[in-house]
Write a structure and sequence with these properties.
The chain is α/β, with parallel strands linked by helices. It has three domains: 124 residues, 4-hydroxy-3-methylbut-2-enyl diphosphate reductase, catalytic domain (Cobalt-precorrin-4 Transmethylase, domain 1, 3-Layer(aba) Sandwich); 111 residues, Rossmann fold; 84 residues, 4-hydroxy-3-methylbut-2-enyl diphosphate reductase, catalytic domain (Cobalt-precorrin-4 Transmethylase, domain 1, 3-Layer(aba) Sandwich). Helices cover 36% and strands 17% of the residues. Helix 1 crosses helix 10 and helix 4 packs parallel to helix 5. The longest helix has 16 residues. The structure holds iron/sulfur cluster. The site of iron/sulfur cluster has 15 residues, from helix 1, helix 4 and helix 7. Iron/sulfur cluster binds next to helix 1, helix 4 and helix 7. Its EC number is 1.17.7.4. One of its GO terms (molecular function) is 4 iron, 4 sulfur cluster binding. Belongs to the IspH family.
């Protein structure tokens, strides 16, 4: 990895300071790590530090290739299913959440479990449980096969109907149109989800909204920043992995809002020089599971090609932090005393 060569300044009006034809970069803020990803990654780091190996992680802790590779090198063992974990071992559940069936499997295998599910995903699980208890049909807007959707749907399989987008609305059937609510995956496109909801409401006028936004603050903020700058960008580079829903959405949002071209890359060396042909303004952002060091590498790569002028486009300030899972807090406290749990964010190194 290379060290940063750029020192972004903050602007609120994209393009206001640009000289015509001068190469420049607009850098989205916020970008990268959200509070749920930070918590999940630090949870694995702390578990590796606290407990005897092996430490198993069910699924990718967060959807980022670099994060998973780095934690693997430190000793974490990633598995796809709970039954791959030896009886009695320690397993961490990923930020995307798991269904009650997965908790039951872990219990049957006497696993020590550490649940790194993002609290904002847990909130959606609770909503699903509550509306199922009240016998609603729950229209869950999300992508089939995504781990978060599997976890949420598993809370109330008899009540949940998956709706993948506006085009699926016509086929949705419910038991009672008077008792219908929609919930969603946390990492969707805000605009597309609102269009899905609009069409669902046309079909089911009594459709209830979730008690609060299911698309999380981090997903929304990263999309707002991209929307603010997309119209100025000849090229948008989104740092993120192809299985990261919120990262993929950022490319789509950029293209929908005026970026002439857009690509998702895990690493700077995946950028194709040909993408820069005739390009004056490059937008750069990153998904919520992406460490900042990867963005710095992209900025360095661009700077080496004449894109040294970097301006931040700031859509929101973020300061949210989540406490670590109880199991980790308890064991840290037992080992290091009270102060240890307070400084945990200084200790996380995958930033
Ligand atoms: S993207 Fe949102 S829901 Fe997902 S881990 Fe981050 S804060 Fe939580």
């Amino acid at each position: 990895m290379t060290s940063p060569t750029t020192n972004p300044s903050t602007v609120t009006v994209p393009g206001a300071t640009a000289e015509a034809g001068a190469k420049r970069v607009l850098l989205a803020a916020p970008r990268g790590y959200c509070a749920g990803v930070d918590r999940a990654v630090v949870t694995v780091e702390k578990a590796l530090d606290l407990y005897e190996p092996p430490i198993y992680v069910r699924k990718q802790i967060v959807h980022n290739k670099h994060v998973v590779r780095t934690l693997e090198k430190r000793g974490a063992i990633f598995v796809d299913e709970t039954d791959e974990v030896p009886e009695g071992a320690t397993v961490i559940f990923s930020a995307h959440g798991v269904s009650p069936a997965v908790h039951a499997e872990a219990k049957a295998l006497s696993l020590k479990t550490i649940d790194a599910t993002c609290p904002l995903v847990t909130k959606v699980h609770r909503e699903a449980v509550r509306f199922a208890r009240d016998d609603f049909d729950i229209l869950l807007i999300g992508h089939e096969g995504h781990e978060e959707v599997e976890g949420t749907a598993g809370e109330a399989p008899e009540h949940i109907i998956l709706v993948q987008g506006p085009d699926e609305v016509d086929d949705v059937e419910v038991r009672d149109p008077e008792k219908v609510v929609w919930l969603s995956q946390t990492t969707l496109s805000v605009d597309e989800t609102m269009e899905t909801v609009r069409r669902l409401r046309e079909k089911f006028p009594k459709l209830q909204d979730p008690p609060s936004d299911d698309i999380c603050y981090a997903t929304q903020n990263r999309q707002v920043a991209v929307k603010q700058m997309a119209g100025e960008c000849d090229l948008m580079i989104v740092v993120g992995s192809t299985n990261s829903s919120n990262s993929v959405r950022l490319v789509e949002v950029a293209l929908d809002h005026g970026a002439k071209d857009g690509h998702l890359v895990d690493y700077a060396d995946e950028i194709d020089e040909a993408w820069l042909e005739g390009v004056t303004t490059v937008g750069v952002t990153s998904g919520a599971s992406v460490p900042e060091v990867l963005v710095r590498d992209v900025l360095d790569w661009l700077a080496q090609r004449g894109y040294e002028d970097v301006s931040a486009v700031t859509a929101a300030e973020e300061s949210l932090l989540f406490a670590l899972p109880n199991e980790i807090r308890r064991d840290l406290k037992a080992r290091d005393g009270k102060e240890a749990v307070k400084i945990r964010h200084d200790a996380g190194s995958l930033h």
